[in-house]
Every structure is written in C-alpha cells, then in structure tokens.
Design a protein that fits this description.
By secondary structure, this protein is mostly beta strands. Helix content is about 5%, strand content about 35%. A 4-stranded antiparallel sheet has the order 2-1-3-4. It is globular. The chain starts with 7 loop residues before the first strand and ends with a strand.
Length: about 70
C-alpha cells in the first residue's frame, strides 16, 4: 500500500483488573501531524497496565517509558 493511510503502530496492550487483556492499534497519522500524545478511551474494568509496542517493532530510544502500571 502506498502512503500511510493504513499505517498503525503495533499494539497498545491494555491489562485490566482481573487479567483481561485488550489490544488496540493507533493510526500512524496521529504522529505524522507532529503530535506527541493522543487519547485512547478505555472502558470496562479498571486498568492496571498499559504497554506500547510490546513486540518492539518500531525504533525507540527509551523503551523504559513504554510501560505504565498502576
């Protein structure tokens, strides 16, 4: 496919209380506009962990900031 209209970062993995895991994809156009943040609406049980790009597909200077835990 030409262009990035269908490009996504790999997984955003969200872990909820009780162990339920949810995977999300975030469109690359969010980053192509120069944004450094985006919002993701998450429902269901409280969130205990979020990880960006767990498969380490994209280059990243600091992978230590790819995980948030409660």
């Amino acid at each position: 496919q030409i262009g990035c209209t269908a490009c996504h970062i790999p997984n955003l993995v969200i872990t909820h209380e009780g162990g339920q895991i949810e995977r999300r994809m975030i469109p690359a156009d969010v980053w192509l506009t120069g944004s450094t943040t985006t919002a993701v609406n998450i429902g269901g049980a409280p969130v205990t962990r979020v990880e960006i790009d767990p498969g380490r597909v994209f280059p990243d200077l600091n992978r230590l900031n790819n995980v948030w835990t409660r």
